[in-house]
Write a structure and sequence with these properties.
The chain is mainly alpha-helical. Helix content is 50%, strand content 6%. Bound molecules: carboxymethyl coenzyme *A.
Length: 427
């Protein structure tokens, strides 16, 4: 028998079951609240609301812990590969060698996009943001792959998930190629998932593209760090869209749209732009003061997180990866020095300490991506590419649940009460 939470309202006392997960805070099951009391809960921004049950990812924000199916992100980033993490998220367990080989084979064989899809790109302006292109093109996939949109069929769900994971690098690379006016490159099956993406992005038909192993490894690690992050805004968007029975391509397009915002995935682009705007370390105090000023909309981008009230474990790996990439490519970027100093000053400032604001995954990622050669506008598209794994894994988890219901929040209505229509000549 679970513990019961007591609620007193309107002179009555009600009991609601408390449920325990394997990790993290217990939850009060209020599904019967309205039926019992005629009241709703009020929680804009879902600061205290668990929207679903999930076995994929666990975050302990106070301790700075992130686990995928129980495995710490630091270990996965150091020892695993993006394909292995994708398999883990989709299939609950790490693959053995045979299972991993089969999975990579399947993903590799789905990397091409329908040839007609390239015409979609021609419809965009050359200076279109890659995320605008991604929203449109990924949504359009539902018009091409009708044989994997019956969401009640687990096999079709699996094929759609594989297609999305496999085609996302091709679609993102095509967005880049379109912007720079170079021809699209077809996927090459003897390359890794990440190597293939780098080649489709930076290669040209006139010459062989050589994948630099250190860059491939760093990029793969960045993909791992972005693969899933529990019920964040874009994942919740995918779940909400999927709860109505919409197909996974449309749901993923919805996730991409949500990710684009600067408070979410768009923060990596905004963080690097901010570091460039700050320019030199002597300007940092001015920007710190601006970030603390309630009347100034400026915020330190790449800082703060709804869940982490400690160092984001992904930022730790990112910071280390910056050094590795710089060394491998023999580059130096003064913006990294600015970032390190900004971090140090902020972490020693009472404002950031009291509010528990630490660097998040986006603080350092832009510096690495920029060193590799990506323009800032591609940063969020790369985030979307990697997060697709989490989106489809979470979507599959939701659709496989027999008790799944359409997501339908309620509201605290503050508009006018009922009134009679007034004809236009009397207004
Ligand atoms: N710079 C200055 N002040 C901040 C910042 C920041 N980056 N982040 C939060 N605060 C302050 C905020 O003003 C508020 O102060 P007060 O309590 O006095 O009103 C307090 O800290 C709590 O902030 P909040 O906005 O209520 O917290 P939230 O959980 O709703 O927002 C966040 C979380 C990530 C949207 C926010 O920290 C932020 O805007 N950060 C910058 C954008 C960013 O880096 N986003 C990437 C997040 S990680 C990757 C991802 O999710 O995609």
């Amino acid at each position: 028998m679970s513990d019961q939470a007591k609620l007193q309202t309107g002179g009555e006392s009600y009991e609601f079951p408390e449920l325990s997960g394997t990790c993290g805070p217990d939850v009060v099951d209020i599904r019967k609240l309205y039926a019992k009391t005629g009241q709703f809960t009020y929680d804009p921004g879902f600061t205290s609301t668990a929207s679903c049950e999930s076995g994929l990812t666990f975050i302990d924000g106070e301790e700075g812990v992130l686990l995928h199916r129980g495995y710490p992100i630091g270990q996965l980033a150091e020892e695993s590969s993006f394909m292995e993490v994708a398999y883990l998220l989709l299939n609950k367990e790490l693959p053995n060698q045979g299972e991993l080989d089969d999975f990579i084979y399947t993903i590799t064989r789905h990397t091409m996009v329908h040839d007609q899809l390239r015409q979609f790109y021609q419809g965009f302006r050359r200076d279109a943001h890659p995320m605008a292109i991604m929203c449109g093109v990924v949504g359009a996939l539902s018009a091409f792959y009708h044989d994997s949109t019956d969401i009640s069929d687990p096999e079709q769900r699996k094929i759609a998930s594989h297609r999305l994971i496999a085609k996302m690098p091709t679609i993102a690379a095509m967005a880049y190629k379109y912007a720079v006016g170079q021809p699209f490159l077809q996927p090459k099956n003897d390359l890794s998932y990440t190597g293939n993406f780098l080649r489709m992005t930076f290669g040209v038909p006139a010459e062989e593209y050589e994948v630099i192993p250190a860059v491939e490894k760093a990029m793969d690690r960045i993909f791992i760090l972005h693969a899933d992050h529990e019920q964040n805004a874009s994942t919740s968007t995918v779940r909400l869209a999927g709860s109505s029975g919409a197909n996974p391509f449309a749901c993923t397009a919805a996730g991409i749209a949500c990710l684009w915002g600067p408070a979410h995935g768009g923060a990596n682009e905004a963080a690097l732009n901010m570091l460039h705007e700050i320019g030199t370390p002597d300007k940092i105090p001015h920007y710190i003061e601006r970030a603390k000023d309630k009347n100034d909309p400026f915020r330190l981008m790449g800082f703060g997180h709804r869940v982490y009230k400690n160092y984001d474990p992904r930022a730790t790996v990112m910071q280390k990866t910056v050094r590795e990439v710089f060394e491998a490519l023999d580059v130096k970027d003064p913006v990294f020095e600015t970032a390190l100093q900004l971090e140090e000053i902020a972490l020693n400032d009472p404002y950031f300490q009291e509010k528990k604001l630490f660097p998040n995954v986006d603080f350092y990622s832009g510096i690495i991506l920029s060193a590799i050669g990506f323009p800032t506008t591609m940063f969020t598209a790369l985030f979307a590419l990697a997060r697709t794994v989490g989106w489809v894994a979470q979507w599959n988890e939701m659709i496989s649940d027999p008790g799944q219901k359409i997501g339908r929040p309620r509201q605290l209505y503050t508009g006018p009460t009922q009134r009679d229509y007034v004809s236009i000549d009397k207004r």
